[in-house]
């Protein structure tokens, strides 16, 4: 017997939610779109439902890396129900991916006015603040768009959510607290991280190591699970004589891949520059256990031994 085809807004939304949970973002988006058309064809206003559908479709676009359409749908959702947390967070993430940091900052800050415990917004504010300081300088706050003041009524509405929504929010917050490092990125996140890493690699080839660091750092925001991104950024730190930062990046790289030869070599170089010869020799020894005939490592070992004598 063929499965029943969803024919109501509620059924279409539920089917879209199921597809989204299964990672089928294109199919979910199509179902939300059908639900929106059906809802709008009714002619009776249901702003809450319509806002949720726009926000859900925006989540699909975000997962697929379509940040422009994500922003459009989040804006539509917020026009219907202002100060809704999910579309604000999704729009902030899209703005961040597009490097529109001032706009991302405004949305994250708005969320924190509504609920100052939302972990993803707190993490987002920290990331964006660093990016704004780097790009706009110490007066970065003066160059931000105005941040809307959230009415008290909105905060009360948020606090009086149903117990079911509270449970779901608590579960989401628990997940959000573990997303900074070691999180399981979506396929879209991984692809975006890969593109940014390649952009960083091209900048290294051109000798623009400072800009390459920015690209690698942005890549790691999307996925912090690739050892090579850390070891590549460590190379840039070495060239810029930022030896302590190079050590940190190599350490992160080796946590992910204990046989990353480049990470061992670059950390040994950084330790040598910091005159920590014992740690440098330990890394070289580990490297030579993996690649006994590694010429650059053998040469570095001789140099470090000479410095110790």
| Beta strands, count | 0
Determine the number of helices (DSSP H or I, runs of at least 4 residues): 16
Structural class: mainly alpha
Question: Unreliable stretches, pLDDT < 50, 5 or more residues?
Answer: 162-183
Query: Which geometry do the CA atoms define?
Result: elongated
Termini separation:
82 Å
Largest sheet: none
Strand content: under 5%
Q: For this entry, what is the oligomeric state of its chains?
A: single chain
The share of residues in helices is over 70%
Along the chain, the helix and strand elements come as HHHHHHHHHHHHHHHH
Can you tell me about this structure?
This protein has 309 residues and is mainly alpha-helical. The protein is 74% helix and 0% strand. The protein is built from 16 helices and no strands. The protein has helices at residues 9-21, 25-42, 47-63, 67-80, 85-97, 101-114, 119-136, 152-159, 163-176, 187-205, 209-222, 227-239, 243-256, 261-273, 277-290, 295-308. α2 (25-42) runs antiparallel to α3 (47-63) and α3 (47-63) packs parallel to α5. The chain starts with 8 loop residues before the first helix and ends with a helix. Residues 162-183 have low confidence and may be disordered.
């Amino acid at each position: 017997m063929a499965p029943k085809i969803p024919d109501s807004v509620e059924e279409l939304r539920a089917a879209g939610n199921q597809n989204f949970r299964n990672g089928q973002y294109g199919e979910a988006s199509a179902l939300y779109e059908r639900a929106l058309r059906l809802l709008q064809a009714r002619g009776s206003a249901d702003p809450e439902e319509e806002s949720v559908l726009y926000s859900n479709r925006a989540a699909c676009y975000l997962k697929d890396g379509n940040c422009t359409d994500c922003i459009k749908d989040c804006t539509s959702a917020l026009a219907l129900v202002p100060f809704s947390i999910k579309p604000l967070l999704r729009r902030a993430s899209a703005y961040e991916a597009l490097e529109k940091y001032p706009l991302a900052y405004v949305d994250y800050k708005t969320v924190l006015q509504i609920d100052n415990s939302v972990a993803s917004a707190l993490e987002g504010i920290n990331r964006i603040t660093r990016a704004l300081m780097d790009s706009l300088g110490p007066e970065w706050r003066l160059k931000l768009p105005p941040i809307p003041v959230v009415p008290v009524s909105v905060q009360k509405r948020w606090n009086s959510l149903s117990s079911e929504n509270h449970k779901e929010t608590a579960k989401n917050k628990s997940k959000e607290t573990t997303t900074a490092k070691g999180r399981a990125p979506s396929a879209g996140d991984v692809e975006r991280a890969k593109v940014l890493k390649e952009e960083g690699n091209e900048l290294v080839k051109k000798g623009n190591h400072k800009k390459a660091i920015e690209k690698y750092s942005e890549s790691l925001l999307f996925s912090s699970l690739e050892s090579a991104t850390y070891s590549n950024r460590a190379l840039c730190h070495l060239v810029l004589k930022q030896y302590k930062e190079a050590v940190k990046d190599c350490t992160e790289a080796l946590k992910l891949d204990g046989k990353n030869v480049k990470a061992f070599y670059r950390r040994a170089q950084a330790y040598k520059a910091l005159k920590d010869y014992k740690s440098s020799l330990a890394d070289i020894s580990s490297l030579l256990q993996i690649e006994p005939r590694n010429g650059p490592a053998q040469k570095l070992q001789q140099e470090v031994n000479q410095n110790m004598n």
